Amino acid sequence: KKHLLSIDDLSVDDIGALFETAAEMHDVQRRAVKKLPALRGRTVINLFFEDSTRTRSSFEIAGKWLSADVINISAKGSSASKGESLRDTVLTVTAMGIDGLVMRHSASGAAHQVAGWLDIPVINAGDGMHEHPTQALLDAYTLQRKLGSLEGRKIAIVGDLTHSRVFRSGVKILTKLGADVTVVAPPTLMPSGIASWSKDAGFATSYDVDSVLPEADAVMMLRVQKERMSGGYFPTAREYTVGYGLTRDRLALLKPDAPILHPGPMNRGLEIAADAADAAQSVVLDQVSSGVAIRMSVLYHLLAGPNEGEAK
Ligand code: CP
């Protein structure tokens, strides 16, 4: 039984195989082929304890285009809101006889915990401030389709690093694929312990976005996660935009063909100006589209083929 909990679970060869399968899924995305039968008879539950637009709907589309039955459960409207524990919730839904669980939870490590309780594949769709591995896969896949090999390419990740699982998974996959990554944040949103992590993992850190952007072959802007800043956030919104936002003026610092990524949802006017979000070099919607292909690929790799005990 395999899970996808962290980018640490994947070798460079695994990532290559996932990208290869994702590329094969584009015929389905173009609707030239309506559905593939790979997961016929399989049931996948999307169990979301945190809100989502992109991840949940793309996992649902991905499962359905592979002919799986997909059930969505969100914490709001489930018995979790009556106080049912995470363990009881996942044991209850899996007792119904499902084949795979896609889970998002606000607690870092929740997906790892759940994987230890279950004997079906678990896919981490975001756990707190820890990891979001399918986001990292779709970001790297989008970049590779735009830039070719990422070996030696300079990629800037800019924003609220402290609260970002997109950053934590993203920096892992991009360095694994040989990219030269610099992460940029104001001092108050730079994670503690990043000095030793960046040294060990081989990426750079900076507080100065204006010196990083002109060199970048691509820039990934991150969302300011107000919902994870219970004590208010500093810098203020205005200071953040002036110091770190991808404003119209900063857009002019970028190479004209450097892709601009943002995982969404975007705070337009805070970390990214409309001029940048909607620029010709923005690949925000390519990321969404790649997300379906990547999630089809992940579901295929983890769930296709005979189950244990099934006739081959
Ligand atoms: N990027 C991302 O995870 O978006 P959602 O929260 O809408 O799923």
From TrEMBL:
The answer on whether this UniProt entry bears the keyword Transferase reads yes
- Annotated signal sequence is none
The metabolic or biological pathway listed in the UniProt record of this protein is:
Pyrimidine metabolism; UMP biosynthesis via de novo pathway; (S)-dihydroorotate from bicarbonate: step 2/3
Where on this chain does L-aspartate bind? 82, 165, 223
User: The Aspartate/ornithine carbamoyltransferase carbamoyl-P binding domain covers which part of the protein?
Assistant: 2-144
Gene Ontology cellular component annotations, sorted alphabetically: cytosol
The keyword Transferase belongs to this UniProt entry's keyword annotation: yes
Example GO BP: 'de novo' pyrimidine nucleobase biosynthetic process
Q: Could you say which enzyme class this protein belongs to?
A: transferase
UniProt binding sites for carbamoyl phosphate:
54-55, 104, 132, 135, 264-265
Q: How does it assemble?
A: Heterododecamer (2C3:3R2) of six catalytic PyrB chains organized as two trimers (C3), and six regulatory PyrI chains organized as three dimers (R2).
Relate the protein's function as given in its record: Catalyzes the condensation of carbamoyl phosphate and aspartate to form carbamoyl aspartate and inorganic phosphate, the committed step in the de novo pyrimidine nucleotide biosynthesis pathway.
State the family it belongs to.
Belongs to the aspartate/ornithine carbamoyltransferase superfamily. ATCase family.
Q: Please report the name of this protein according to its UniProt entry.
A: Aspartate carbamoyltransferase
**Species for this entry:** Nocardioides cavernaquae
Upper classification of the source organism reads: Bacteria, Bacillati, Actinomycetota, Actinomycetes, Propionibacteriales
